[in-house]
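Collaborator request, handled under Task 6.
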Amino acid sequence: MTTAPPPAAELSADEARRIALDAQGFLGVPDRRGGVRGVLRHLGAVQLDTISVLARSHELIPYARLGAVGRKTVEDAYWTPAPLGASSPRPHAFEYWSHAACILPIEEWPHFAFRRRAYRARPHWYHDLRDGAYEAVIKQLRTEGPLTATELGGAKNGGPWWDWSEAKVAVERALMYGEVVCTGRRSWKRVYDLTERAVPGEFLHDDLDDLECLRRLVRLAGRSLGVGTRADIADYHRLKGEQFDAVVEDSGLVPVTVEGWGKPAWADPEALATAPRGRHRTTLLSPFDSLIWERARTERIFGFTHRLEAYVPKPKRVYGYFAMPLLSGGRLLGRVDPAREGKTLVAKQVSLETRKAVLPMARALREAAEWVGCSDVRVERVDATELRGPLTEALAGL
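Structure tokens returned to the collaborator:
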């Protein structure tokens, strides 16, 4: 583990929290000029997930920062579909393995060369392929143009979960290796294309060595977090601790100490230049939001324990299937497990940290309902039963 040099600054816990909020786009007036693409470039990675409750997570990320931006606008900002018969337009983003499966700015393609090389040396998935199957998929893409796994011959063999078809295994392997890229989706299905055809020429190179790639990603992660420990920064793009150690001194991040953290930390020097100021956003957060996707960091910064329970057996869930934390005033004040029934947003379970969270929760629920086209909000259960009435009244008054 790297030993940090003497810190350049000492931050209070509150200062670190505000720096983190500012770095993640939750402090001050939203920059609507950059729109969804600006959010993506600011964060460096937007995590994807199949779960859709209010909306899919990659839609919830810009919504949480910009407000009620149209959902089609979100999709169009990430993916620029080519009209039939036309060559692919310049993409703004691509999908790859970062923190998890993520949407990434297209200009970062060269900086994931280290991971593509690692996958080619030791594949992440060990599905067997018959001789020639990989080459057949590449040939089909070359001949027919961008295709989904279904169009390549079918995505599954008919079994559950990871029972992928041979075509799906082959094209996903090609994606990992970097011979194929996904720069768009069609009905939530990845659209695969040859990298040489889809990635703009100025980014189409894998000649950066591992240290150059790692240095860039550590710097970007530090900028997107504002301030973080070794584990925080490495986890942002799922780097190993020793990879962080190898480049942090040359990354441009500066060492700091943070009150109560008990571990060395590093900060973006621009985040230290001026004290973060501006109004706080009140919103519901996706459990996959980069502000809170790392549990230990969320507990350290906000004193808030967060866990996605979608994969927890229903009888063992505490807060619900897809509990979304409530951010207001720069604090995490509670959570809600939402659902949709026609034109009604259903707050299946609401958990509030304090009575002061009632009005912010009501506002967040009402705004989220309007965003997804719901005209009503119904509260089913409030953990603190004495707050159910006040919450219902607050919703009625909005």
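The cover message to the collaborator said: "The longest helix spans residues 210-225. The chain has a mean pLDDT of 92. Please let us know whether this matches your experimental observations."
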